[in-house]
Amino acid sequence: MCHISAQAIEAPIDFPMDDQNVIAIRNALSSLFLDEVNRAREEQSQHDRYLLKMELCAYLKISNNTLDKWIELGLPRINICGVVRYDRDAVDGWLRKRIEGW
Prior knowledge:
mainly alpha; 2 domains; 3-stranded antiparallel sheet; 3 strands; about 65% helix
């Protein structure tokens, strides 16, 4: 096991860096950061695809009563053994079709 004292952590490390190396490091860190943000967004997007009723109301910024009316109009939902979820992609498609039909 290796122990590092607080003094060792606080000691400055001095090494020369030219502008080209600084730019290369900055670009590499920026790329890593963007890759991680995109990965997290994709992961969150997959996690949030199937919504509860209250989550769908918040997503659409509508009341529960309005959502009930939209369900009567054919808003797609998934019901498995009484557990209801709303596929965000299917709901978005349903809304697009309604807009195009206007």
